[in-house]
Design a protein that fits this description.
Elements: E1 7-8, E2 18-30, E3 34-40, E4 43-52, E5 57-63, E6 68-76, E7 81-90, H1 93-97, E8 103-111, E9 117-126, E10 132-142, E11 177-182, E12 187-205, H2 206-212
Parallel strand pairs: 1-7
Antiparallel strand pairs: 2-3, 2-12, 3-4, 4-5, 5-6, 6-7, 8-9, 9-10, 10-11, 11-12
Length: about 210
């Protein structure tokens, strides 16, 4: 996405109630299906993620207060980024409450130097005797940046690595690298390539919600 974000909103909200979402940080990664993320550093109850398809960039606005996902088509042109609202759907109960049985996450932090650090989160299956079987791990590398990054966003980079449990144990700091290492030999590396301060507002009217749910 371009450095200067100029937002074009096709639906103008006049005399109708709108759900309004404000974003102040933009992060772009390479190496996985996640192309970009927008967050509000003061409110982690919602965030926006983008995934690039074969020809189209799809956007997903996750609202955990309303338990809704709003879907967008994102058009990245030379001078602007356009968000075309498509539809909305409720998050399923399974999405919100699914917990894998006998799964344990362990987290350790390693200080590399005065600036850099690394957090390793290991996923294990624990049997009735308490014996652990390694399922995979995540390495989060930090470079001292103070940028906010909701820990629960990490789940969007891993393919079913996390279930729906609370991820508040993951520090809310922006990682410059996210590495998933699965027990089947698959390794997925996501590298931060851009971070920007933005002032972006997305609005969805009740008219749109009623007609497109």
């Amino acid at each position: 996405m371009k450095k200067n974000l100029k937002i074009i909103i096709l639906f103008i909200c006049q005399n109708v109630f709108c759900q309004e979402y404000n974003f102040d940080n933009f992060y772009e990664f390479e190496g996985s299906g996640i192309k970009a993320i927008m967050i509000n550093s003061q409110d982690d109850s919602y965030y926006f993620t983008c995934k690039k398809g074969s020809e189209t960039i799809w956007g997903y606005l996750f609202d955990f207060k309303e338990n809704s996902i709003h879907n967008y088509e994102v058009i990245d042109s030379d001078n602007s980024v356009q968000f075309n609202y498509l539809n909305s759907r409720k998050m399923t109960t399974a999405y919100l409450t699914y917990i894998e049985n006998n799964i344990q996450y362990d987290s350790t932090t390693e200080v590399i130097d005065s600036i850099k650090s690394k957090t390793i989160i290991t996923k294990n299956h624990v049997n009735k005797r308490g014996k652990k079987r390694f399922l995979g791990k995540i390495e989060l590398e930090f470079d001292g940046s103070n940028n906010v990054f909701p820990g629960k966003l990490i789940a969007h980079f891993g393919h079913h690595f996390f279930d729906s449990r609370d991820l508040s144990f993951i520090v809310n700091k922006l990682p410059n690298k996210i590495i998933f290492d699965y027990n089947n030999g698959i390794v997925i590396t996501n590298k931060l390539i851009k971070k920007l301060k933005i002032n972006t507002i997305l609005k969805i009217s009740t008219v749109q919600l009623v007609h497109k749910q």
